[in-house]
Amino acid sequence: MSLTRAERNIIVSMWGKIAAQADAIGTETLERLFASYPQTTTYFPHFDLHPGSAHLRSHGSKVVSAVGDAVKNIDDIASALSKLGELHAYILRVDPVNFKLLAHCLLVTVASHFPADFTADAHAAWDKFLSVVSSVLTEKYR
Amino acid sequence: MGTCRSLGAGAALAEARSGARGCTMVLSAADQAAVRALWRKLDTNVGVYTTEALERTFVAFPSTKTYFAHLDLRPGSAQVKAHGQKVADALTLAVNHLDDLPRALSALSDLHAHKLQVNPVNFKLLGHCLLVTLARHYPGDFSPALQASLDKFLSHVIWALASSYR
User: Fold this and answer.
1) What is the number of other CB atoms lying within 10 angstroms of the CB of residue A42?
2) Can you tell me the distance from the alpha carbon of B145 to that of B158, in angstroms, rounded to the nearest whole number?
3) ipTM of the complex, rounded to two decimals
């Protein structure tokens, strides 16, 4: 599955606004993930997971920054996220189902912050983009 | 063995909460209160949001259109709006029977299982699009906690809807 030119344009054009609120969006995405799907907290026994915690802010920021790397290298996401893919495959071993849950929560967060921009077409493009990112991150699992 | 079927993260979590004996999945009092409060707020607009959710589902997940070959699926279609209202009415029925979803939704479950034969995975896709739609329209109010309550509610509805399949 690869992104069409139109889909890439949508992603890239929205990224500026998202990046401007990267920390808030990253933190909120994780808060939504842990509230809706508490089983995902299993990967973070070392974190303080209270809403607004420093851990959530810093990790949320990392996640959004990685998504940003994928956006900036949208024509070759596999190369851009190759190291991150190895990290998830060999060290973190996050079960792939969780990427869908995280993507869902990121989309809800983006929709909440940018209701006018998040049209049905933008929603579809972002969902597809995040599933490309997820498959790059789980590519080396086996 | 019981009649519980795992349909994904939400349903699996609900099963774990209900305990090993039987499948008496009932939403907690807090979740019920949150869902009812939201529904009071949505008032007569539920159909507007379910229609938007349907439109988003068709755009983001085109495989779902397979069940609607008989409808005009273009944006703004009156037929999609009418179907959105049917979905809205079913969800409102569910909100009004939170203590007894399986019985309240049993006719709809039979319809989807035996006549429409919709693969239950599609219910989750519609659920996702509904949550995105509500987040767009109520940005300040759609907190992580409310999202979680609504997600649980939808997973209960999905479980009840899929219960007649086998």
Assistant:
1) 10
2) 20
3) 0.80
Q: Do A39 and B13 touch (CB under 8 A)?
A: yes
Polymer length in residues for chain A: 142
- Give CA–CA dist B125/B117, Å, rounded: 16
Name the band, by pLDDT with cuts 50, 70 and 90, for residue B24.
Answer: low
Give the minimum alpha-carbon distance from B131 to chain A in angstroms, rounded to a whole number. Answer: 7
Nearest to B51 by CA among B157, B133, B162: B133
Cα A25–chain centre separation: 10
| Residue among A34, A51, A123 whose CB faces B56 most closely | A123
Q: Are A77 and A70 in contact, with CB atoms under 8 Å apart?
A: yes
Q: What is the pLDDT of residues A46-86, one digit of tens each?
A: 999 998 899 999 999 999 999 999 999 999 999 999 999 99
Task: Give the whole-angstrom CA distance, residue B59 versus residue B160.
Answer: 26
- What's the pTM value of the predicted model, to 2 decimals? 0.83
Query: What tokens appear for A134 in the block?
Result: 């997820």
Q: Residues of B with CB below 8 A from A127's CB?
A: 60-61
| Cα–Cα distance for residue pair B55/B149, rounded to 1 Å | 24
By Cβ distance, the residue of B55, B129, B147 closest to A36 is B147
